[in-house]
Amino acid sequence: MFGVDTSEFLVVAVIALLFIGPKDLPRVMMQIGRWVGKARGYARHFTSGIENVIREAELDEMEKKWREENQKILAAYPADGLYPDPVPAATETGAVPVMTALPPAALDPDQPPLPFEVPAAPDDDPTPPAERPLP
User: Which of 13, 29, 31, 102 is the Cys-Cys partner for 106 at CB 3.0 to 4.6 Å?
Assistant: First the structure.
């Protein structure tokens, strides 16, 4: 600790005992302990502040990278819904074709949702809906 060896610490303790005296030595040692505790508290506060600054700098750097990636994604997929076909040979291989453009109604949030039909079950079927076979 601070380059003080055990023998040097023992010499300082004996000198302190001689100059301060056995009566006041416990009070002085408590005061020194308080000072050491305060110094450790300040050091801990300082190191936690440095760690917070480093963490914030790392978060800023990550946020910058995410912003750049987001810009790349937005450039690749524009808001007009006309995307480049990512798999042009998908229909040749028999795979499901890829939708390359969204319908205009899907892009406009003010438009009502696209209509879809729900197949109606016959009214004369006595079985509960959960047990009916799918059409």
Answer: 102
